[in-house]
Fold these 2 entries.
Entry 1:
Amino acid sequence: MRDGRGHREALPFFVYGTLRPGEHNHDLFLRGRTTAEEPARLRGALLYDGPGYPYAVDGDGVVTGELVTAAPGHHGELTAVLDHLEEYFGPGDPRNLYVRVERDVDTASGAVTAWVYVAAEHVARELREKGAPIPGGDWSATR
């Protein structure tokens, strides 16, 4: 989505793993950089447990998480920090563990377009072959 000047609009982020409130990366990376966090759900995805953290993969399911809105003036910094954390180096980079994509997520007030980090294709392929989706799509509930 673009604003009236043709610049990229500052989308919120949908988080579903270690960045959720109460999880260890929330305080490290989000505290002081957000203005709002609200429950949300991502449809059309399955959640797989990875080594220490989960991966969302396209599929016929729902992933539970939170919609996180960056504080004014912090969106660029937050994007860079999260890209680094999620090992997203840019579109098509073979080193990516995750890719950052735009997806619609459901909140209590309706659908919102957000950035979501989903498994890079080579990771998703391995998870589909060797893993099992987390029942109910809620990583925090399984911990």
Entry 2:
Amino acid sequence: MTGRLLRPLVCALAAAALSVVLPLATPAASKALLADGIRTSKTPAGTGTPTDHPPTRPANAPWVLRADRLVLHDSAFHGVVTVRTAAGSERALKFTVRSLDIGDLDLTVGRGSSAMRLRAKPTTTSTVTGKDVVTLYTQKLSGTVIGLGGAPLPTDRSVTVTPDALPPWLAHPAVPTRTLTFENVTVSQIASVSGNMSITGPALSTTDG
């Protein structure tokens, strides 16, 4: 099922006050989000940390993505940025990628009794693509790294990447973009993903809180 066919899902999420669960669920929704813009300001004088300003709505519905496999095609790591959200300023990892492949997507959005869960049909791969690049902000990415674009894998392939724990292989000055592949992944998101999603057999349910 392509993003265009997910409009009923988006309506259901909106009715549950979680319209930002999939800001990328339809081309129209993506354009609306990007119209607000995730804009990167100039680095404030006297500081060395860039500040990104995403729309405030996504902070009201934080989400956690779990996947058997996550592939970041032609990814570039842009360092740690400060993201301004409705909940206040948060530090986040910033990535841009050409596209994302998500194996066995399992997405939980919201907190407590208002949380909802979106799952793809088992053994399928969901994709996220953008016009140019897809931008991803996350506070935490954990899993098993199995591909670093041809570079040697770390001795300990079980990784947890946060703004305070950046592995040396994350950025490669000689290779600005490369494909990163992870298995058994959990990604904690605080801002938004720009792009359009294609997902097969989506199933939406409430969580137990």
